[in-house]
Amino acid sequence: MAEGDTKAAPADRTTALSEQAEWARLSALQVAEYDIDDLSLDDDDDQTQKQEEHFKRGEKETLLKVLNEMEEIALKRTSEGFNEINFSLGVLNCFLISYLVGECPQHLWLFYLIEAPFFFILKFYKMWFAKPLNQALYYMDFCWIMNFLAVFFLGLFVSAEALGAQINEDVRAILFKSSLGVACGVLMMANIVLNFVACIFHDVSSMTSLFIHLMPPMVMYTLRWHSDDILSSWPNVFTFSYLGEVQYFGGMNGVAGCSAALYFMWWIFYSSFMLLVGINLPRKFKPNGANANPRWDTVFHSTMRTGACVTIGKFRKRPTADSLQRMEENNFDMVDFFLYMMGHMVSSMLAICTVGYGCFSNKYFFKAMLGASAVLAVVRGGKRYTYYSTKMYSKALKKRFSYAIESNDGKSGYSRMS
Questions:
Q1: Which of 34, 265, 353, 416 is most buried per CB count within 10 Å?
Q2: In this predicted model, what pLDDT tens digit does every residue of 30-41 receive, in sequence order?
Q3: Which of 201-215, 280-294, 399-413 has the lowest mean pLDDT?
Q4: DSSP reduced 3-state for 361
Q5: CA 145 to CA 122: how far, in whole Å?
Q6: 3-class DSSP state of 250
Q7: Quick count: other Cβ atoms within 10 Å of Cβ 245?
């Protein structure tokens, strides 16, 4: 069951009761298990010594229990990839990308094409075996689909060059314009506003999220502002004969128009899937109240659980308690989904028309946006490592021993509903 679920199963109650009984036993050992009032004055020293022995034995068992829990936390982190090898590879990869951007921008697209499939496969493996819900449907989100298309068409360009085939210049121009608005607008703004886009070197999942959001804008930077270098190094893969005629706002033939068309193709596809199937997949309970035993999660449900449901609920004048309950049960309705998708669409169009245009028009603005994205990713990663080194163990121990840290009304306050 999800953390904070107030509908605890009987097995959970049995576990909680047994843990409370264990804690009571340890407490009893600390204060001794006999009545001091019945002791004679002559035996005061002996009884005091016995009390100290009982206390030390109970204290030792308590400390061992805490140390075992800390060891389990450490083992869990290392099993998830928190080790020096992954950390070193993550740092070195960032150094390599920085070097390519500064010294060899004409080859950055090739590095993206080579490394992207590695991240795609590794991330899919982790999402497929994610608990409690399978996260493979996250690949239907906009950012993932755009990266899949980017890799596909870059691979198509390379294949065409290897086979001696020709790709129509109009097709190349449409692909360039669509990619420019999406990468420099939507994905660039995603780097700025999404807190999970962070530089956490040891965590493959986090580095993959950073990769799919930051690398496309970096590649587009080289294609837009280093096209001559790319053309001289890869004359048969890229042409850029259309570059001088590209306009940002030129109807459906402009960058904004092509990018919007690509976005709405995804928007219709994703909305159709969610309305027909996806919105019900993660729900914990069926309409009749029976357990639905969900297996699949979606980005929509994940986003709603992280607080978007409360924000939308306030807009709909829905009680906060109702929104929290929906978050616990993954029970979101069509209106929630409609407002979510409308917000996604409006913010994406604004990003294309503002940030995207700035990156297209001014090289230094583009650099500033990339720099700001990198700084934010590092700061977010730094906060996470601070949490790992300071608050992680205390938070986990409080949760583990919550039955012994009860409030005055007898309720342990570690539920989202409390």
A1: 353
A2: 444 444 444 444
A3: 399-413
A4: helix
A5: 16
A6: strand
A7: 9
3-class DSSP assignment, residue 124:
helix
Reported confidence tier of residue 8, pLDDT bands at 50, 70, 90: very low
Instruction: Tell me the longest C-alpha to C-alpha distance in the chain.
Output: 105
pLDDT of residue 385: 87
Check whether the bond before 117 is cis (ω within 30° of 0). Answer: no
- Sign of CA pseudo-dihedral 160, 161, 163, 165: positive
CB count in 10 Å sphere of residue 393: 15
CA distances to 3, 108, 195, 376 from 380, rounded to whole Å, are 24, 25, 7, 6
Angstrom CA distances, 397 to 72, 94, 287, stand at: 11, 34, 37
Q: Which tokens is 53 given? A: 């022995």
pTM: 0.79
> What angle do helix axes 142-163 and 255-276 make, rounded to 10 degrees?
120
Give the Å distances, CA to CA, from 241 to 44, 247, 267, 303. 99, 14, 31, 42
- Euclidean distance between CA atoms 61 and 16, whole angstroms: 19
Name 78's Cβ contacts closer than 8 Å, sequence gap at least 6.
none
Neighbour-count burial for 299-326, b at 16+ CB within 10 Å, e otherwise: bbbbebbeebbbebbeeeebeeeebbeb
pLDDT, one tens digit per residue, over 72-94 is 777 777 767 778 898 899 999 99
